[in-house]
Amino acid sequence: MREKDRGIWQQTGWQQVLESVLGCAAGLQSLGLARGEAMLVLGDNRAHLYMGMLSAGALGCHAMPVYPDATPEEILHVVQDVRVRYVLAEDQEQVDKALDLRERGAPIEHIVYDNPRGIARYKAAGLVSWDELQAIGARRLAAEDGLRQALIELAQPGDPAVFIHSSGTTGKPKGVVLSHRNVLAGVRNAHRAGAFDFGEEILAYLPMAWVGDFAITMGAGVALHFTINIPERQETVPHNLREIAPTLYLAAPRSWDNMLTTVQVRMEDSTWLKKRLYDFFMQSALVAERGKLEGRAPSLAQRLLRPLGEWLVTGPIKDQLGLSRLRHAFTGGEAIGEDTFVFYRALGVKLRQLYGQTESSAFNAMHDANEVRLHTVGRPLPGVEARISDRGEILLRSESVFAGYYQQAEATRETLEDGWLHTGDAGFLEPDGHLVVLGRLSEVVHTAKGERYIPNYIENRLKFSPYVKDVAVLGSGRDTLAAIVCIDRESVGHWAEVRGISYMSYADLSQRPEVIELVAGAVRRVNATLPEGLKLRHFVSLHKEFDADDGEITRTRKLRRNVVEERYKPIIDAIYGGQASVTMSARIVYETGDVGVTERLLSVKEL
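Predicted structure:
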C-alpha cells in the first residue's frame, strides 16, 4: 500500500500491513469489539481505514463504510440497522460527525481516529488515536502466546467481510452483508475472465462505501497482491493518476466523459499544428475503431498510421491522462456514450463495460478485451449463471451472491429465490451469450397511449452528451415524453466562454437562449433514435444541479425519481399545461447545513 502524505509517497509492504491489521484487531478486541458487532467507517480513502476494515472482518465483525459526505441524518438511518458502538474516523471532521451522532442517540462508545490534527484538546469520552490502538494491540500480541495465530484463523469463509448499503433509489438503503466467500468468489470469477491479474497497480480513489472499491481494492487487492496507491485527497486524483499510471482502472461513465472533455478543451486551446495532427491521426483511429466494432478489419493505411499516431498524438495524450500503462480499463454503473467509448478505444485504451451489483459482490458480466459491443455488457463471468425470467428480468446465480438483506426477510424473499438473485434489471441474452441490460424493471412505465419505455434508458443516452450532467425523463401516464435537464457546468461553461457568451452563475448560464438550443441539439440527436411515440416533445433546463444533499440523487448519482417529481411538480405542471415558462423556487441545503431558497424563471422548450 502506498499513500501520498504531504507530497511524498509513503510505502507499506504487505507484511507490515498484516502486522498493522493484527495490531488493530487485537486493540479493538481489548476495547470490547466482539463477533457480530459493527464498526462504522467514516472518511475518504486512507490506508489505516482499509486496514481497520480488514481487522473488523478478521474478528467476524461488520465493517460498515459510509460515504464521507453523508449527512448525520443519512448515517443515523444506517446505524439503526445494527447497534454501532465503534467508529473508525479519518480526521477531525469525521470525529465531529461521530460525536454529533452520539448526541442524536447513536450508542457510540469508542471513536478511533487516524489523523490527530485538531483533536488534541477534545475531552469527549472514548476517543482513541490509531497509534494508541496499535500500541494496545502490540502489547497484547507480545504478552499473549498464540494470540497472533488465533486472530489469523478466527474468521471463517461465511463470516462478514463488509456491510454495504444499497443505493436507495426507490426508498431507504438496504443493508447488504457480503461474506469473505462472496467477495473472493467474485474476484475469482473476474480473474478467470481476464479482468485483472496478480500484481496490478491501482489507484484507490472510489468511495469506500461503494462495493466496487471494496471488491477491487480489498478483495482483489489483497488476494492478488496489488500495489494499492491511495491519493492525498479527492482533488489530487487526476494528478495522482498521472503519477501512478495504473495498470487497472475502473471509473463511472461520467469520469471517462470528464477526461474526454479535458482533452477536447486542451486541444481547442492548442496550436494550429497540434490541432491538425490531432484531428488527422485521431480521425483515422476513430474510423478504424468504428470499423472494428462493425466487424471490419483496419485498412493497410490505418495500420501504417497507427504507430506514428501513437508516437505523435495518442501516446502523449495517454501519458498526460495517466493511462500510459493501462492494461485493464472498465466503465460501470450505467451505460456509456458511444462517442466516449470509441474515443478511448481509438486512443489505444481497451475500455470495457463491466456489469455488477452490490448484492453480487460487484462482478456479474463484462466484455472480453477484444470482443466489445456497444449495446451489451459482455458475457456472464465464469462461475456466474444467468437467465431471463418470464417477465424479462435478469436472474443470476453464483457464489458471489449475498445471503440476504440484513434483518429484512421480506425484501430477501423478493430478491433471492431458489438460489437465484433477482437483479431488478430488465434485459435479454443474445444467441452467443452476450447480455443486454435495458434498465431497471421497476422503471418500466407506459404513456397514456400504451407505449412501453424505461426512463433510465433514455436518460443515459441524453447524458452521452458532454453538455448534459443529469436528466429526469417524464411521461408516465402522459400523452408525450418530456425531460428536466441539468447542464454540465464545466463543459457548457467552456463552450460559452469560447463563443463569448457571458453569464453570472450556473442558473444564469442554464437559461441562456444559446445554451437551451445547445441542449435541444442533444435532445434531437436522441430523438432520432427513438420511436415516434417516445420522442421527447418538451424539456426544461434546470437552474441548479440535482444534488445528493437535497435528496434528488443518491451518493452514487442515481436519480431518486419520486423526489424529483415531487419537488419539481410546478415544472411538470407547466410542461404538460402548455406554458412557455415557469417560476421555480428550490430549497438548497448548503455544506454548512444552512438552508436557502433560489427562485428563477425557467423556459419550457418545445421540440
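Summary: The domain at 444-606 is CATH 3.30.300.30 (GMP Synthetase; Chain A, domain 3).
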